[in-house]
Specification:
By secondary structure, this protein is mainly alpha-helical. It has 2 helices and no strands.
């Protein structure tokens, strides 16, 4: 689930950060999502993924050493 969330959140931040070309007579497009907040959430999800992966690897090493 963390991997799925981590794939979605940075994508949404990237879409929100995209620049728009416009003329003076056109309406300004404003992102509906806070890019800063999405980046912060993506960083937090990446940290959680690293912690889970580290825990799994540590557990695998402990089981291998017991056998």
């Amino acid at each position: 689930m963390l991997r799925l969330r981590h794939s979605v959140v940075p994508s949404a931040a990237g879409e929100g950060q995209r620049g728009y070309r416009q003329l003076r007579s056109e309406l300004t497009m404003v992102p509906a999502l806070s890019v800063t907040e999405l980046r912060r959430r993506a960083d937090d999800l990446a940290r959680q993924l690293r912690e889970v992966d580290t825990f799994i690897q540590r557990t695998n090493w402990a089981v291998d050493l017991l056998n």
